[in-house]
Structure formats: C-alpha cells, structure tokens
Amino acid sequence: xxxxxxxxxxxxxxxxxxxxxxxxxxxxxxxxxxxxxxxxxxxxxxxxxxxxxxxxxxxxxxxxxxxxxxxxxxxxxxxxxxxxxxxxxxxxxxxxxxxxxxxxxxxxxxx
Amino acid sequence: xxxxxxxxxxxxxxxxxxxxxxxxxxxxxxxxxxxxxxxxxxxxxxxxxxxxxxxxxxxxxxxxxxxxxxxxxxxxxxxxxxxxxxxxxxxxxxxxxxxxxxxxxxxxxxxx
Lengths: 111, 112
What we know:
The complex is a heterodimer. By secondary structure, chain A is mainly β. Chain A has strands at 4-7, 10-14, 19-25, 32-37, 43-49, 55-58, 61-66, 71-76, 85-93, 98-101, 105-110. In chain A, a hairpin with a 4-residue loop joins strand 9 (85-93) and strand 10. Chain A is globular. Chain B is mainly beta. In chain B, 0% of the residues lie in helices and 50% in strands. Chain B has strands spanning 4-7, 10-13, 19-25, 31-37, 43-51, 54-57, 64-66, 76-78, 87-94, 102-103, 107-111. The interface between A and B is medium-sized, with 23 and 22 residues.
C-alpha cells in the first residue's frame, strides 16, 4: 500500500529565509505532484514531476524528484508572506489511476 | 467560461439525512474524482470515475454513493450511513492522456 509522508507538518519561517519541504513515499512511482491550498480554498496545481531527476521551478519555489530514493523536495528561496499556505505532495499509485496525498505542510511566513 | 463547479459552497444538514453534492465540469475531461478533507489532514479518495457509466470505490467509500450518467457531471451522495460526514469535499477532473488533476472550489458540509 502506497503511503506518502511530508515533513515538516508545520513550518514558520521569516521572510527572506530559505527552507525545504520533504515528501517521502513508500512504493515505486515516477509521477509526483505538488499542490498549494490557501485557507478555506481549493487546491492549485504547482508542479508535475514525471521522471527521475526532474526539476521544476516557478518563482521562489523549486521542486525535484528522486525516484530511487522515493523522495521529492519543495525548496523555498527567500520566502515572502504571499507564500503562506498549505503545500501538499501527491504520488501516483501506479496502475490504479489514483493519487495518494501527503498530510500537507502548513507554511507561515512572517516579517 | 470553462472550469469545475461545485455547489453549494456551504451545506448544513441534520443527522440522518442524505445529501447530494454537485460537481460539474465543462472541460471535456473523462476522469472525475471525489475527495474528502478533514481539518489539518490531507485528501482521501472517496470515489472516482474514468468514463461515463463506470466508477470505482476509493479508500473511504463506505457511506457514500455516486453516479456518472453524463460526462460533465459526477454527483456525490452522503448517506445517513456515513458516521462522521462533516468535512470539506473536493471534486477533481483530469483530461485523458495527462496526469494532473484539477480541483473544484469545494463544498463544506456540516451535519448538525
């Protein structure tokens, strides 16, 4: 059974600092997704990572995938308040057409 | 205006009543999904459908039912058998041949 773990679950960081969110998963998969959720809102797709070594960047966020280690990272560079949200990773459960979501990382950026 | 719509945004029901949540998309997507989100939690899959007139149970299907009579619509019924139905419900769809699921705005259901 595919399990997805994120850490940390909660992250409070100062503006201008860098930090990394980690997403580990338990069984083989080569497709991983990152989503953002603002409080009370729906999920917004951020990145789709489809192969080992994939790296995608958008603004201050950069996501990478290591399928051998079953690990994805979401790196935040020089955080700003607008990045405050909950970030979810989701892993494709191969052969099932299902995504398995992590529990989310709630990011709070303060001045 | 294309997209995924869910209605209503907020829904209140008395315990023991069935309730149906609407999900409509005009994106011509084949696959549709229903998820449940509890406070501070990730998303859990309730049901999904890859084509019209066919659907599969997800990880927490007990107490829920769905239908897929039209490509555009995938309504979810929360029955009285669902022990703890208060949650945020999200519908998603995915175009054939791609991997990304796109989410609707969600329905917050509160059972009193």
